[in-house]
């Protein structure tokens, strides 16, 4: 089993903030006890948070609560070219980073509500995104008392904002255990490498050391969706990226994402994205020009 990346806050600091440049984003499905505020500065790929799957690109900003399973899989994860293409800034902090009772005080009610919302993950958009990103970049160079004030300022900005949307569904229940992380990592790895082809349930179940029926029950209980819904969302996420790039026709995108018929692709795309591939592409092009 691959060791999980250590995210723990050190015993001599209240929180961690760092800006990084790496070849790819952390490719391991994992979770940790700290809250995480993360912004993608450069890079693109597929983002997995709880039961949510989405294409990400520069500007993606989220706040995640403790033990929320997640990973950002870079588009070029499997390419041999490992020049730094993953640029981000991240803050890790524990729920009691200012003491066990601090956030129970009446003055902290907005921050406590923010922490509760973060249990399902929050995507930060609009003007709030711009303001918070500027504050995060400033925080990288702050130390001591100023750094604590900087983090509280960021959290208060988020707590007062209406530009924070839930990521995982409100019906999502986090049933993952640390002992199961490797099993889910193997499943994610296999699907990401083979989603453009026909995927065998028997093959995936064998990788998880389960029978097909047991694997289906296991996966749905933890991901809040069926395994093949999961595969479909990965394919549609890849399709969104290809449509945004605009180098292929919609029919070519469908086949590139593992669909054998354009009608099936159009149906599943509309079920997932809530609009047709052509309309999705047109709206993105309009925003890009505007």
Automatic annotation (TrEMBL):
It comes from the Bacteria. Residues 185-283 form the HTH araC/xylS-type domain. The keyword Thylakoid does not apply. The keyword Metal-binding does not apply. Keywords: DNA-binding, Transcription, Transcription regulation. InterPro entries: AraC-bd, Homeodomain-like_sf, HTH_AraC, HTH_AraC-typ_CS, RmlC-like_jellyroll, RmlC_Cupin_sf. PANTHER family: ARAC-FAMILY TRANSCRIPTIONAL REGULATOR, TRANSCRIPTIONAL REGULATOR MTLR. This is AraC family transcriptional regulator.
């Amino acid at each position: 089993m691959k060791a999980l990346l250590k995210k723990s806050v050190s015993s001599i600091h209240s929180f961690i903030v760092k800006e990084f440049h790496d070849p790819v984003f952390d490719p391991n499905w994992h979770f940790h006890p700290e809250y995480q505020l993360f912004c993608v500065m450069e890079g693109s790929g597929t983002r997995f948070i709880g039961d949510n799957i989405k294409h990400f690109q520069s500007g993606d900003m989220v706040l995640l609560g403790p033990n929320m399973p997640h990973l950002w899989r870079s588009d070029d994860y499997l390419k041999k070219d490992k020049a730094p293409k993953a640029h981000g800034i991240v803050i890790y902090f524990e729920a009691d980073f200012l003491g066990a009772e601090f956030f129970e005080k009446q003055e902290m009610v907005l921050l406590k509500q923010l922490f509760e919302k973060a249990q399902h993950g929050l995507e930060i958009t609009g003007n709030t995104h711009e303001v918070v990103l500027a504050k995060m970049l400033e925080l990288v160079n702050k130390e001591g008392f100023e750094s604590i004030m900087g983090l509280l300022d960021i959290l208060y900005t988020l707590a007062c904002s209406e530009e924070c949307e839930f990521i995982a569904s409100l019906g999502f229940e986090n049933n993952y255990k640390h002992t199961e992380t490797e099993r889910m990592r193997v499943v994610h790895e296999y699907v990401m490498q083979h989603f453009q082809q026909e995927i065998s349930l028997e093959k995936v179940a064998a990788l998880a050391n389960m029978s097909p029926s047991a694997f289906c029950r296991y996966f749905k209980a933890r991901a809040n969706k069926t395994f093949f819904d999961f595969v479909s969302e990965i394919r549609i996420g890849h399709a969104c990226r290809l449509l945004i790039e605009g180098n292929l026709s919609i029919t070519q995108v469908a086949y590139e994402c593992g669909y054998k018929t354009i009608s099936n692709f159009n149906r599943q795309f509309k079920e997932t994205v809530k609009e047709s591939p052509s309309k999705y592409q047109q709206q993105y092009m309009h925003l890009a020009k505007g």
